[in-house]
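Render this sequence as a predicted structure.
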Amino acid sequence: MAFSLLFYYLKFKIMMIKMIDWAEKACRAIATIAISIALAVGFAIGYFAPDASAKPATPEAAEYDVQGDDYQVNIRSERSDAPIGSPDLNRDIQSNIQDAIDNVREKLNLDQPLYPGTKEVIEDVREGVSDAVESTQDVLTGQP
């Protein structure tokens, strides 16, 4: 009788170990599948997401239209074959510098007149600087 109880106890214990082992494997498989699906969805969202685009908020911003993905920049590869120090090379360099200056002037609207409020601020700064310089000169020369 004791032998049969011991036999059934060991059989039950082995069965429980197998069930726990099976449950662990099932949990690992479910976790692996869940993580794989989450990663796949995450990559799919990143891959298939539309490009960020927004409408310009002001009319000025609408003027600066950005070209699409097929836009190509044409880089000038005009290189002067004139020897160093020649007037032709100097003329080419001056022309390139003038083109760059004109480009900056156009992009920054430097040809436009200053806003009156900006002129007032500049005048206030000039007055403040001149007052500071005068007081510094007075201190250095010893005048009260």
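Summary. The chain is about 70% helix and 0% strand. The mean pLDDT is 79.
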